[in-house]
Amino acid sequence: MAEILKGKPVADAIGDKTKEIVERCRKKGIVPTLAILRVGEREDDLSYERGAMKRCMTAGVEVKNVVLPADVAEEKFFETLKGLNEDEQVHGILMFRPLPAQIDGEKARNMLLPEKDVDGCTDGSLSGVFTNTDRGFAPCTAQAAMEILKYYGIEISGKRAVVIGRSLVVGRPVAMMLMHENATVTICHTRTKDVPGIAKEAQILIAASGQMESIGRDYLQEDMVVIDVGIGWNTEKQKLCGDVRFEEAETIVQALTPVPGGVGSVTTGILVHHVAQAAEKLSSGQR
């Protein structure tokens, strides 16, 4: 049976580091603060917001909630975002996406200052991931996958890694982060031929296709660590499920993250850690 790589101990360890940074900042009179910019009342946004606020409270990070109606005018939205960029008391901004159709999402994404982009969505932050520099912050979910591998002592250097999914949120950034750790990386996507055959060669498999329970035994082999990034509600089973068919994978692979209780539980911890890091950079005069 596979070792189950639970997210909670990883998130707790990250939380301890976050508290240390927050304490150093507060001694300098700086209160790390996250602004959450939400348009409308999407339930998935509200759920993530509740989790982020709870994690912030535990770490000693303040939260400023900025909620705009779903039909907000584009001009008003950009005026609000500009104000948060300029507010020296705000160290990180979490902007929920997708935005409503009347708002230019690309413009909004890149209007965020990279040094406040704690969710790693701007071109500036992504350039930092691709060049392995500290400009901005990595996307939280991609970094969460990496933190799980490192916490459990899973060797990355020299390993064959396969990433299923090529989004800018997870697939491409996590592939680059694996490469920076000297893994040999293949990205599979909707036009890839024989994805199961390629996946089965992996020693580290990152499942980030967004296709619920699409990955089964034909993708898996025993010398494999599986990080399941996907999450969705299975109406038939009446439970949350990932991209991987957990019951099949558990009997085959070496190690596996659960859903829920895996990558998702680490993601909000990374977000809050980024806020603390952004505040500390400000306190030391870094940008």
Q: Gist?
A:
The chain is α/β, with parallel strands linked by helices. The chain has helices at residues 8-27, 43-59, 74-86, 105-111, 123-131, 140-151, 171-180, 195-199, 246-250, 263-283, and strands at residues 3-4, 33-39, 62-68, 92-95, 160-164, 184-188, 204-207, 225-228, 232-234, 239-241, 255-256.
Characterize the structure shown:
The chain has 287 residues and is an alpha/beta fold. It has two domains: 30-118, Rossmann fold, CATH 3.40.50; 140-265, 3-Layer(aba) Sandwich (Rossmann fold), CATH 3.40.50. The chain has ten helices and eleven strands. It has helices at residues 8-27, 43-59, 74-86, 105-111, 123-131, 140-151, 171-180, 195-199, 246-250, 263-283, and strands at 3-4, 33-39, 62-68, 92-95, 160-164, 184-188, 204-207, 225-228, 232-234, 239-241, 255-256. It has a six-stranded parallel beta sheet with strand order 1-11-8-7-5-6. α2 links the parallel β2 and β3 (62-68). The longest helix has 21 residues, at 263-283. The radius of gyration is 19 Å and the shape is globular. The model has no long low-confidence stretch (mean pLDDT 95).
CATH architecture of the largest domain: 3-Layer(aba) Sandwich
Structural class: alpha/beta
Query: What is the domain tally?
Result: 2
Main sheet overview: 6 strands, parallel
Name given to the CATH homologous superfamily of the largest domain: NAD(P)-binding Rossmann-like Domain
Proportion of residues in helical segments: 40-55%
Average pLDDT over all residues:
95
Number of strands: 11
Strand order of the largest sheet: 1-11-8-7-5-6
Topology-level CATH name of the largest domain:
Rossmann fold
Number of helices: 10
Spell out the helices and strands N to C: EHEHEHEHHHEHEHEEEEHEH
Q: Uncertain runs with pLDDT below 50, 5 residues or more?
A: none
Radius of gyration: 19 Å
What separation lies between the terminal Cα atoms?
A: 47 Å
What would you call the shape? globular
Report the top-level CATH class of the largest domain.
Alpha Beta
Fraction in beta strands: 15-25%
